[in-house]
Design a protein that fits this description.
The chain is of the alpha/beta class.
Length: about 250
């Protein structure tokens, strides 16, 4: 066990004992299944914003220290790329093939939506390969999530039309013009579609996904380890008499 793993494991044990009495998972969260891994696929493309992909990757990977359920997080590409270059030049290799049928969570970061002459979200929308792949991905049991201008890739795929959602504040007018029901919240949870605002909101998105999939204790203990408290409003649909579990 390396020093980083030892630090995390030690923190996990301490936090679990100290925070065992925290609130139960939200009613909308699925009951954790300790027998099967939580499979997270994080979508990568050239021009992706570094914090957009690294933040959720860190949070979701570290969640495995606070639950008996295994958590598997991998980078994937819809174009067959084995490596991508981020917005600030970070090169990421070892990217896995596109396989949303094998995922429980498909997370789409942003980056490059405002840049029309360089790689990023705008270039991926123009090329069309990733939006088409995202449009074909939804199925029962899969939650599609996106943060920052990655939500605009979902919009190009037709996945946000008529759905509550949010994105980076500068892209909200475009998201609304394309049919998204934009909410004034840091994270918007509409069941199998979860979106968040810009850049650092990806941390809150990932913590909320952990809370949904693995329970409130896992999310709270993870915040303790990361020394980061989830912030901002999480929008969820109002409960109704016909759906008391929401």
């Amino acid at each position: 066990m390396n020093r980083r793993q030892l630090l995390r494991a030690t923190t996990a044990l301490g936090a679990t004992g100290a925070l065992a009495a925290t609130a139960a998972p939200p009613a909308s969260a699925a009951a954790p299944d300790p027998g099967r891994p939580l499979r997270v696929h994080l979508v990568m493309f050239d021009g992706v914003e570094e914090l957009d992909f690294a933040g959720p990757y860190e949070v979701l990977s570290a969640a495995g220290f606070f639950t008996p359920r295994p958590v598997e997080v991998r980078y994937v590409s819809a174009t067959g790329a084995r490596g991508v270059t981020g917005a600030y030049g970070t090169v990421v290799r070892g990217i896995h093939p596109w396989a949303p049928e094998e995922a429980d969570l498909l997370v789409v970061p942003g980056g490059g939506y405002a840049r029309r002459d360089s790689p990023g979200v705008r270039a991926e929308i123009d090329r069309g390969t990733l939006p088409r792949a995202l449009a074909a991905a939804p199925r029962p049991g899969l939650t599609v999530a996106a943060l920052c201008t990655g939500v605009m890739l979902l919009s190009a795929a037709g996945l946000t039309k008529g759905r509550p959602c949010t994105t980076h504040h500068k892209a909200k007018p475009d998201l609304q013009a394309q049919g998204g029901l934009v909410k004034n919240a840091r994270v918007v949870d509409d069941g199998d579609l979860v979106t968040s605002g810009g850049v650092t909101s990806g941390l809150d998105l990932a913590l909320w996904l952990v809370r949904r999939a693995l329970g409130a204790d896992a999310a709270t203990n993870l915040e303790e380890m990361l020394e980061y408290e989830a912030r901002g409003t999480v929008w969820t649909p109002p409960r109704s008499a016909a759906d008391p579990a929401r």
